[in-house]
Amino acid sequence: MNRFEHRTAVVTGAASGIGAAIASALHSEGARVVWIDRDPAVEELAHRHDGVGVVGDVSDTELPGRVLELIRKNAEGLDHFVAAAGIQVRTAGVDIDEADWGRLLSINLSSVYRFIRTFSTALKTGSAGTPGNVLAVSSMAADRAVPGIVAYGATKSALSHLIRGLAVELGPSGVRLNGIAPGYVSTPMVASLLADDEARTRILGRLPLRRLGDPTEMAGPALFLMSNDARYVTGQVLAVDGGYALT
Questions:
Q1: CB of 123 within 8 A of CB of 224?
Q2: 232 catalytic per annotation
Q3: Contact yes or no for 12/85 (Cβ under 8 A)
Q4: Is the Cα torsion angle 146, 153, 220, 230 positive or negative in sign?
Q5: Given 113, 152, 184, 244, which residue is catalytic?
Q6: What is 121-177 written as a DSSP string?
Q7: Each residue's pLDDT tens digit, 99-152
Q8: What is the CATH topology of the domain spanning 8-186+214-238?
Q9: β-pairing verdict for 52-55 and 32-37
Q10: What are the helix (H) ranges across 8-62?
């Protein structure tokens, strides 16, 4: 399929994991993709996919403006923004220090708001007069109390609410905002947890599908929500968790 042919997309957290899988899938369906990550490897990854790589930390308040200027110089407009950058701090909620708390908020929540605020005008017209849309990567932890990542879950819960609220405010302009809420997926973020055999067995035992998700399995639902197939869907955060929320 070429559902995104001649469309321009920006993806944060694009150097690995879910962000890389979504960016790659967008490219495979015809999109011109701007790949953003603080990992310099994003430049080579973007080059291999005929895209543009931008090395930058999403907590940098000037980054959204620089990316928008880049798009204006090299493309006809902006059609899709994917907020996949995120971090996790594993510790008891009351033990997280101020610096880690601030970093979680900055990357998982505030950066997404800043990008959407900066891109909102461009998204209203898209690249050909058709409004664009936003896809945010939230988490199953947004709606469940998971010991050890309570602070992370709080930022993702706020992110889900942000997507729903902005979907209402930007809906009259035609801009849609949706999200996906992954469960346990084989990414660098959860590698240390899954390396513990006991924890891995416990997690798999709660999953109806009895297996971990793969980053590429997050891309399909994400692209559906961004495509015209979902043109009457907005303000939704779709669980893509192998059934974990059911247990």
A1: no
A2: no
A3: yes
A4: positive
A5: 152
A6: HHHHHTTTSS--EEEEE--GGGSS--TT-HHHHHHHHHHHHHHHHHHHHHGGGT-EE
A7: 999 999 999 999 999 999 999 999 999 998 899 999 999 999 999 888 889 999
A8: Rossmann fold (3.40.50)
A9: parallel
A10: 17-28, 41-48
